[in-house]
């Protein structure tokens, strides 16, 4: 049985697309007769502090669904202070180096990037002629950070670019969640082996039904990280509420601002539901007419994994983020597009919707498109062939 190690900064019980993606990859490979182990920090995301059940521990090893999981210490923080966030990554990198020294590492290792520094630590320490290093790139850093306004083109940015290029250079295979990521990698290293690995979810398709929230107003739902990149606070401020209700699930940096905005505007039909488990969320989402997938700014290389998850749920989408995600929505007829950053166009698009366009028949078509085009196991078999 071939052994494979996955190194990631996010893993359940943490919530969100990143942890779900790596969890499905790990259990999927295990089902394909790999002996899978995972290295991840003690759970801390997105709250920025180690979860209560893991506090006071330096390391924990457990087996879940036949996958061995090594949880390592880090200094947890989600502070906006760049030095504190850098120290968080350095602390995890130190724990990784310590683990590498005292443990035997398999010949095939999948390394999640970003964070760039963590990936750099792995690529630097684990390079060997007989070892295959696979870099799983979910976002293009530091480019994405520049587009989000987190970075400026200075000395630090140039250093991050050098780290990025080092990581690509040392990888034997680069997995990218979007074609834009693979195009970028090929522009730097034309001969580099690449593989398009979309963030397809792995769960049973639910039985579809008409949305259970009645009334003339269209019910719009957002579920996920309430971070700066998603711009949900700006969305709350900018939506035209004349014919909609807006429902929000999740947590993150903007949570308190959103909750405060709702309390200061009690006449607006906005409901914050807090954080729920993934299974609870799936059941809840089926009750709404349409979901919105926003990005505050178009981010090159980014394709929200929500697209594939919501398609399996048969949930119509309103995409407001630009880039490759637009192409996927349009190609597979999964919903509607609003011009990224143009809130006037977003409101006009919403006004053009009617309950007849959000019918059970339309949901069934969306789910069928997901069944035909976003199959996790088919993609996994193709990946298995190149590992």
From TrEMBL:
Which SUPFAM superfamilies does the record cross-reference, listed alphabetically? UDP-Glycosyltransferase/glycogen phosphorylase
Q: Which residues form the Glycosyltransferase subfamily 4-like N-terminal domain?
A: 17-182
Look up keyword Membrane and say if it applies: yes
Q: Which residues form the Glycosyl transferase family domain?
A: 210-370
Look up keyword Transmembrane and say if it applies.
yes
Q: Tell me which Pfam families the record gives.
A: Glyco_trans_4_4 (PF13579), Glycos_transf_1 (PF00534)
Q: Which UniProt keywords apply?
A: Membrane, Transmembrane, Transmembrane helix
What parts of the sequence cross the membrane?
83-102
Kindly provide the name given to this protein in its UniProt entry.
Glycosyltransferase family 4 protein
Q: What is the lineage of its organism?
A: Bacteria, Pseudomonadati, Bacteroidota, Flavobacteriia, Flavobacteriales
């Amino acid at each position: 049985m071939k052994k494979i190690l996955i190194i990631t900064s996010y893993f359940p019980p943490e919530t969100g697309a990143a942890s779900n993606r790596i969890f499905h990859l790990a259990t999927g490979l295990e089902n394909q007769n790999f002996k899978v182990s995972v290295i991840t920090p003690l759970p801390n995301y997105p709250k920025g502090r180690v979860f209560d059940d893991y506090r006071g521990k330096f390391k924990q090893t457990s087996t879940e669904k036949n996958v061995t999981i090594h949880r390592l210490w880090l200094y947890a923080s989600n502070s906006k202070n760049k030095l504190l966030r850098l120290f968080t990554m350095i602390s995890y990198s130190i724990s990784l180096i310590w683990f590498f020294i005292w443990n035997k590492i398999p010949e095939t290792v999948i390394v999640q990037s970003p964070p760039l520094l963590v990936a750099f630590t792995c690529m630097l320490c684990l390079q060997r002629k007989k070892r295959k290093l696979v870099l799983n790139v979910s976002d293009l850093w530091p480019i994405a950070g520049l587009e989000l306004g987190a970075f400026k083109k200075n000395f630090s940015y140039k250093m991050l670019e050098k780290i990025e290029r080092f990581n690509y250079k040392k990888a034997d295979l680069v997995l990218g969640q979007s074609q834009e990521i693979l195009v970028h990698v090929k522009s730097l290293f034309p001969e580099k082996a690449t593989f398009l690995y979309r963030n397809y979810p792995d769960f049973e398709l639910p039985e579809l039904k008409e949305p259970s929230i009645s009334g003339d107003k269209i019910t719009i739902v957002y579920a996920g990280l309430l971070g700066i990149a998603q711009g949900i606070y700006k969305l709350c401020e900018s939506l035209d509420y004349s014919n909609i209700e807006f429902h929000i699930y999740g947590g993150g940096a903007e949570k308190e601002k959103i909750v405060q905005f709702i309390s200061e505007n009690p006449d607006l039909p906005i409901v914050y539901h807090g954080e729920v488990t993934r299974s609870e969320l799936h059941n809840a989402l089926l009750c709404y007419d349409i979901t919105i997938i926003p990005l505050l700014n178009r981010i090159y290389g980014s394709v929200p994994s929500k697209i594939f998850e919501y398609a399996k749920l048969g949930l119509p989408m309103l995409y407001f983020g630009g880039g490759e995600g637009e192409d996927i929505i349009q190609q597979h007829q999964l919903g509607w597009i609003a011009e990224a950053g143009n809130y006037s166009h977003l409101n006009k698009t919403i006004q053009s919707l009617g309950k007849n366009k959000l019918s059970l028949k339309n949901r069934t078509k969306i789910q069928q498109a997901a069944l035909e085009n976003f199959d996790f196991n088919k993609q996994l078999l193709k990946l298995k062939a190149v590992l």
